[in-house]
Automatic annotation (TrEMBL):
EC number: 2.7.1.156, 2.7.7.62
Family: Belongs to the CobU/CobP family.
Record pathway: Cofactor biosynthesis; adenosylcobalamin biosynthesis; adenosylcobalamin from cob(II)yrinate a,c-diamide: step 5/7; Cofactor biosynthesis; adenosylcobalamin biosynthesis; adenosylcobalamin from cob(II)yrinate a,c-diamide: step 6/7
Organism: Rhizobium mesosinicum
InterPro entries the UniProt entry points to: CobU/CobP (IPR003203), P-loop_NTPase (IPR027417)
Listed name of the protein: Bifunctional adenosylcobalamin biosynthesis protein
Length: 169
């Protein structure tokens, strides 16, 4: 099938746009949530997102083994939304994982997928240079990951103020 990559800033409307792509596809809907509930505020956000999606979605919570989870649920007649890559990247960094290897494995999987994939991420490279080493490493990892996904994706959108700008496809 195809992989669609959706980038944008926080609260730009990228998740709503991604969910609409999956909903209007008419395919069996799967959602891979990469976020972790580190605190009560994040738990509330996760619960709100689940409630807004409703029961027509199958949710898979996977903070680390993203490529393996994609491979396990991949199949024709399915649409899989992954939200979001920057949370996944944060999890990998916090666990000391090999980010280059994990990113390469994900990028290699995308063109082989049978499902329609929709992948969401926060664009973090448009601001000032971060003031600390970890934040700079995160920005650099995110930039490289985004380039790899965009190269493998058939369609790429940038969302700002709820408006999609098609960049590829």
């Amino acid at each position: 099938m195809t992989a669609t990559f959706i980038l944008g800033g926080a609260r730009s409307g990228k998740s709503r746009f991604a969910e609409n792509l999956v909903t209007t596809s008419g395919l069996d809907r799967h959602y891979i949530a990469t976020g972790r509930a580190w605190d009560e505020e994040m738990r509330a956000r996760i619960d709100q997102h689940k409630a807004e999606r409703g029961p027509s979605w199958t949710t898979h919570e996977e903070p680390l083994a993203l490529t393996e989870t994609l491979a396990a649920i991949d199949g024709e007649g399915r649409a899989i939304l992954v939200d979001c890559m920057t949370l996944w990247l944060t999890n990998l960094m916090m666990e000391g994982r090999d980010i280059a290897a994990q990113s390469a494995a994900l990028a290699a999987f995308l063109p082989q997928a049978k499902a329609q994939l929709v992948i969401v991420s926060n664009e973090v490279g448009l601001g000032i240079v971060p003031e600390n080493r970890m934040a700079r490493e995160f920005r650099d990892h995110a930039g490289r990951l985004h380039q790899m996904i965009a190269a493998s994706a058939s369609d790429v959108y940038f969302i700002a103020a709820g408006l999609p700008l098609k960049m590829k496809g």
